[in-house]
Design goal:
Order of helices and strands: EHEH
Shape: globular
Strand order of the largest sheet: 1-2
Number of domains: 1
Structural class: alpha+beta
Helix content: 40-55%
Length: 80
């Protein structure tokens, strides 16, 4: 499946990843972005510099959006 038309946000703020530096947070975000792109080809990834809740994942099919969110929630720690 091609995920063109879907957008997910990845945060740059160190607060999103626990205790780390700005540089470490950027590296984690880069790794997470690559993981998402590998799992969901064609998806658009937005970087968000702020901490807290990111902009929700968006796309034309709510079930696919839920699948993307669940995958990120289950796999983001592998980027650490």
């Amino acid at each position: 499946m091609n995920y063109h038309g879907y957008t997910v946000c990845v945060g740059n703020d160190p607060c999103n990843y626990g205790s780390c530096t700005d540089a470490q947070a950027l590296k984690i975000a880069d790794t997470l972005e690559a993981m998402i792109e590998d799992r969901f080809p064609g998806i658009t990834i937005r970087r968000t510099p702020e901490s807290g809740s990111p902009t929700p994942t968006r796309g034309p099919d709510c079930e696919v959006v839920d699948e993307i969110d669940a995958w990120v929630a289950d796999n983001w720690m592998a980027a650490l």
